[in-house]
Design a protein that fits this description.
By secondary structure, the chain is an all-alpha fold. The protein contains 9 helices and no strands. The protein starts with 6 loop residues before the first helix and ends with a helix. 30% of the residues are buried.
């Protein structure tokens, strides 16, 4: 649904998105009703349906906004850094700091991965992330920083390691994001420097 919104309307929509994201993360998407959301916000259902056709559309917007915000955080951390390996490291660190600051959004992303209605949106975001990382990996290969290998496969490896460490060490064990990032960067860079020899076997 496309509507032209005033600055006040945009702010109200943002408030709805933020409130619903936290409520979904706390209580679950399916158990949370539109009535609970509008009651919690102190508005009528008409306000909700002015911005969203359904609860499902609301969550899709939350997920898309979260993925975009994460990507922007990564890009801001990388900026104009010329070294592709430093860009990869900064991207990993930015990702873990974003997850630490937005745990409720990460909860929704994990839920969405398992739900047929929302999993395609998460997969699309994953493909963008792989493309972003693969570009830096390819540049590192081209400049001789790491041995030749399939950059897309290596991008998946970096994402997998970072995501798994985030789940276990950051989210479940409460380890500080910088410490988790140190582990992720060390492990990934060791793998990147040996990738060519491993793929040749």
């Amino acid at each position: 649904m496309e509507r032209r919104l005033t600055p006040r309307g945009l702010e109200r929509k943002r408030q709805l998105l933020d409130f619903a994201a936290r409520r979904f993360a706390e209580s679950g998407f399916h158990p949370t009703s539109v009535a609970e959301i509008v009651q919690g916000m102190g508005v009528g259902k008409g306000v909700f349906y002015w911005y969203f056709d359904s609860k499902e559309e609301l969550l899709l917007e939350i997920l898309q906004a979260a993925q975009l915000d994460l990507r922007r955080a990564q890009q801001a951390a990388i900026e104009d850094e010329p070294d592709p390996l430093v860009r990869i490291e900064r991207g990993i660190r930015a990702s873990l700091h974003w997850l630490d600051a937005n745990r409720h959004l990460d909860t929704l992303i994990q839920f969405a991965r398992t739900d047929e209605a929302f999993a395609p949106a998460i997969r699309r975001g994953g493909r963008v992330a792989v493309t972003d990382i693969a570009r830096h990996v390819q540049e590192a290969i081209d400049t001789g920083r790491i041995p030749p290998a399939d950059p897309e496969v290596l991008a998946h490896c970096i994402l997998g390691v970072t995501d798994s460490l985030a789940r276990v060490q950051l989210i479940h064990r409460g380890q500080p994001p910088d410490e988790v990032a140190d582990t992720a960067v060390s492990f990934c860079f060791e793998g990147l420097t040996r990738a060519g020899s491993l793929s040749a076997r």
